[in-house]
Amino acid sequence: DRRESKLTLRPPSLAAPYAPVQNWQHQPEKLIFESCGYEANYLGSMLIKDLRGTESTQDACAKMRKSTEHMKKIPTIILSITYKGVKFIDASNKNVIAEHEIRNISCAAQDPEDLCTFAYITKDLQTSHHYCHVFSTVDVNLTYEIILTLGQAFEVAYQLALQAQRAKPLGAAAGETIETKSSKPVPKPRAGVRKSAVPDQDSQSHASVSWVVDPKQDSKWTLSTKYETTIF
């Protein structure tokens, strides 16, 4: 019952210090029961050998832009975002190409040199390798909304995990799946959000925006979130 799914989210400015906006794009239920779909061009992915947060993301954006600038046809996909993660869907035949769980996404950021380009980094649990997936859109505002929606997906997943922890009976097995009111399994939170200090920026200026999540390597659900803004 959607009436039972009411979830209180912190606004972006409280979920992460110095976030450049005051409101999320969607109602939480949109990310819980449905999905947010965005059309984008998929420039490709690359292995990240030395993970350095948004610096790695931005390096990958620059390299993938250069390697694809002469390509005549770049695949168009639909990015389907929910609190569970992100799916790549082929725009032409609607087949799911890839799927990344929210807990394996470590960073999402716009390219400061081209604000229509953005990327996020994922961790392959089998190999422990990190890969950066790079996309572009036709409009900088669309790219900005995608990054903000990814940030909201992290916040919804985090709040659902807290809700599940509060509802869990005492003495329950530590590793069992937790059911929320929406009957959707969510991972158990192992720690709270650590607020990272970011230098104050003029929120009215146009900025490249990133949402960073740094899960600890051996933890299923340890979040550190922050917005980073770079003013040009």
Automatic annotation (TrEMBL):
<protein>
    <submittedName>
        <fullName>ANS1A protein</fullName>
    </submittedName>
</protein>
<keyword id="KW-0677">Repeat</keyword>
<dbReference type="InterPro" id="IPR006020">
    <property type="entry name" value="PTB/PI_dom"/>
</dbReference>
<dbReference type="InterPro" id="IPR011993">
    <property type="entry name" value="PH-like_dom_sf"/>
</dbReference>
<dbReference type="Pfam" id="PF00640">
    <property type="entry name" value="PID"/>
</dbReference>
<dbReference type="GO" id="GO:0048013">
    <property type="term" value="P:ephrin receptor signaling pathway"/>
</dbReference>
<dbReference type="GO" id="GO:0046875">
    <property type="term" value="F:ephrin receptor binding"/>
</dbReference>
<dbReference type="GO" id="GO:0005829">
    <property type="term" value="C:cytosol"/>
</dbReference>
<feature type="region of interest" description="Disordered">
    <location>
        <begin position="175"/>
        <end position="210"/>
    </location>
</feature>
<dbReference type="InterPro" id="IPR033635">
    <property type="entry name" value="ANKS1/Caskin"/>
</dbReference>
<feature type="domain" description="PID">
    <location>
        <begin position="38"/>
        <end position="169"/>
    </location>
</feature>
<keyword id="KW-0040">ANK repeat</keyword>
